[in-house]
């Protein structure tokens, strides 16, 4: 530990001072040092890790933003793939670093997502969801798929959902019929409704898929849902394999850099060994063996990898809430509207209504951030147990508890982020509705978090029970407890409302510093009204003027100036 001066100097190198400007008024009023809080929450190693990613992007032309430019879907899919390929070249997180600090996986997903969720999803569906499902559901005979994934020889996707079924996985209709004469499984979609659909990476370049199908042995007996590795394209040409009809489902409401696709299987033959055999296996003669006595437990184990996605989505939702709040709080601290006199307007953050709208979500962001990280660490503990083939009661209970907490935490986090992003959009008024300020993208990109992984949020009674557990578990901020609407009743209501208003008023002078802790660099936040210098109008005006043809005369000017309409010429004569 060096001298205090050396300590501060090293802090400044790690966390340089934020730019001067209108936000300094609030920063000066803050009751704490944002750098100390960030060091406390993330630690030096994680801050350096994040900086490495963000500065690589900011200095790489492939990741440049193009304000005011709407990329055609095909171009965006290509650019997203090229950026994903560049991530392999950066190799931000190798296996050794992952083992040393698994939380960096969580941080990498979220840093990529702060830049673009299409990129984060593409990269992680391949290197994490596809590979870790093989790792957790397969055995030694499947490890070659993982190595090939990590050096991009093959590219993976996770194919559970079908056109006609998503939440109800027991009703999945793709079949895997074992043929002992050739020791192969025959993968088949009985009809187009059973086609795999919505599958990230499948639309353009995935060569292999983890496919969930009902396993049938020669006697026609169904052993339920199992997962298989199926090659869908030739890695050398990206042309479909025989019996495979594969394509892109088209434009979504967001995340359009991600190629979600569909596949219909026409009696596609795969080697027996491609069955991911942790929950059950088939002998060369076609006899089914399993270590699971209880069918429900075996079913649950086959879906264990879904908890990984849900836990990640909790973190992704928290990131979106943080991004939206970074923009809205900084805007609110610099946007002046009305005041004690005409020429003395005050920041809208001073109004009780603006505090009520935003500060409870700031508390939620901190509370859910803590919850998401601890749950991810529990997930890692579960996955280590899986790798060590731990059959203990604790391991089984940990799996069920994470399934419950993840299934309840995901709706809680994704809905909080969805409602918070909308509140932030509205709190920024018209400028919040300007696409360049990024609040629309944040809201649209967060939207699927409310639906993917465990169907929709309106899943089951488990949600209500566990959401109460969740609120108790994550309620680290008094404000979050109150604002969460956890208490009810008239008297309690009045006490709570006054407590919220009182806490908001106390927190408003810390709001900008609390956002400085969670906000990414300006390049990543990518919002003129959310920049760290708080020069709201200069940043907005500069970005508007950077737009293409922004001051040019409309190309169709003659349709107004020269060719006037003949009024009523198309009016019906009847
Ligand atoms: C990482 C960054 C990029 C992310 C990008 C996002 C890309 C999106 C990808 C996807 O969307 S992938 C597809 C996601 N699909 C789903 O999540 C399907 C949702 N449905 C289900 O999970 C299940 O169908 C269900 C709704 C949980 C099952 O309901 P059902 O009523 O049919 O059975 P249950 O009685 O609930 O369960 C039986 C038994 O199994 C246990 N169990 C179920 N799921 C799990 C699990 N994931 N982990 C552990 N255990 C599980 C359940 O607890 C029951 O056991 P008991 O409690 O009876 O012992
Ligand atoms: C951006 C995006 C990426 C995706 N990526 C993948 C992927 O890579 N791999 C993959 O396999 N899938 C993927 N999916 C599919 C996703 O997992 C499914 O959309 C999700 O599981 C929900 O299933 P569904 O769409 O069939 O909706 P359904 O299950 O049909 O539900 C539709 C609606 O019915 C109601 N409902 C359903 N069940 C119940 C119930 N029990 N009680 C009350 N109401 C109910 C709910 O309102 C629900 O929203 C992706 C989806 C999106 C949007």
From TrEMBL:
Official protein name in the record: Acyl-coenzyme A oxidase
Domain of life of the native organism: Eukaryota
A Pfam match: ACOX_C_alpha1
GO biological process, one term: fatty acid beta-oxidation using acyl-CoA oxidase
Bilayer-crossing regions: 468-487
Pathway where this protein functions: Lipid metabolism
Family: Belongs to the acyl-CoA oxidase family.
Cofactor annotation: FAD
Keyword Magnesium: no
Gene symbol of the encoding locus: LOC100926778
GO CC annotation: peroxisome
Binding site for FAD: 161, 200
């Amino acid at each position: 530990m060096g001298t205090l001066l050396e300590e501060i100097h090293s802090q400044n190198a790690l966390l340089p001072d934020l730019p001067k400007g209108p936000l300094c008024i609030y920063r000066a009023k803050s009751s704490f040092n944002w750098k100390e809080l960030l060091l406390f929450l993330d630690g030096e190693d994680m801050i350096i890790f994040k900086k490495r990613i963000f500065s690589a992007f900011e200095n790489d032309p492939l990741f440049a933003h193009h304000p005011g430019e709407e990329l055609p879907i095909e171009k965006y899919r290509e650019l997203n793939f090229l950026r994903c390929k560049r991530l392999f070249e950066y190799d931000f997180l190798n296996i050794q670093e992952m083992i040393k600090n698994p939380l960096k996986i969580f941080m990498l997903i979220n840093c990529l997502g702060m830049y673009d969720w299409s990129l984060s999803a593409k990269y992680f569906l391949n290197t994490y969801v596809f590979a870790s499902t093989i790792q957790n559901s397969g055995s030694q005979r499947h490890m070659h798929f993982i190595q090939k994934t990590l050096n991009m020889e093959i590219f993976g996707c996770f194919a559970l959902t079908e056109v006609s079924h998503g939440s109800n996985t027991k009703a999945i209709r793709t079949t895997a019929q074992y043929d002992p004469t050739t020791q192969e499984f025959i993968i088949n979609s009985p009809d187009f409704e059973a086609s795999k659909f919505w599958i990230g990476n499948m639309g353009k370049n995935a060569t292999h898929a983890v496919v969930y199908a009902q396993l049938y042995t020669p006697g026609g007996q169904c052993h339920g849902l199992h997962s298989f590795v199926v090659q869908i394209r030739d890695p050398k040409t990206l042309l479909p394999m025989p019996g495979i009809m594969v394509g892109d489902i088209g434009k979504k409401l967001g995340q359009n850099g991600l190629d979600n696709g569909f596949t219909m299987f026409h009696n596609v033959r795969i080697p027996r060994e491609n069955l991911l055999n942790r929950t059950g296996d088939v002998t060369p003669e076609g006899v089914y063996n399993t270590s699971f006595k209880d069918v429900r437990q075996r079913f649950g184990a086959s879906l264990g990898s879904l908890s990984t996605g849900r836990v990640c989505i909790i973190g992704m939702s928290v990131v979106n809430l943080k991004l939206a709040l970074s923009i809205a709080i900084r805007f609110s601290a610099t946007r002046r509207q009305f005041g004690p006199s005409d020429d003395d307007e005050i920041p809208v953050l001073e109004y009780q209504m603006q505090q009520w709208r935003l500060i409870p979500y700031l508390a939620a962001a901190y509370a859910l951030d803590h919850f998401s990280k601890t749950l991810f660490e529990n997930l890692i503990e579960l996955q280590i147990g899986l790798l060590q083939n731990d059959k203990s009661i604790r391991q089984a209970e940990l799996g069920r508890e994470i399934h419950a907490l993840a299934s309840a935490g995901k709706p809680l986090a994704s809905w909080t982020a969805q409602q918070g992003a909308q509140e932030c959009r509205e709190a920024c008024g018209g400028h919040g509705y300007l696409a360049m300020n990024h609040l629309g993208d944040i809201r649209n990109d967060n939207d699927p978090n409310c639906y993917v992984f465990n169907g929709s949020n309106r899943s089951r009674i488990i949600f209500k029970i566990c959401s109460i557990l969740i609120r108790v578990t994550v309620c680290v901020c008094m404000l979050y407890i109150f604002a969460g609407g956890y208490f009810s009743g008239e008297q309690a209501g009045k006490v709570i409302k006054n407590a919220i208003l009182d806490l908001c008023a106390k927190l408003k002078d810390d709001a900008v510093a609390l956002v400085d802790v969670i906000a990414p660099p300006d390049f990543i936040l990518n919002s003129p009204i959310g920049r760290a210098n708080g020069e709201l109008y200069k940043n907005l005006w500069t970005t508007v003027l950077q737009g293409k043809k922004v001051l040019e005369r409309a190309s169709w000017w003659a349709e107004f100036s020269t060719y006037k309409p003949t009024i009523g010429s198309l009016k019906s004569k009847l």
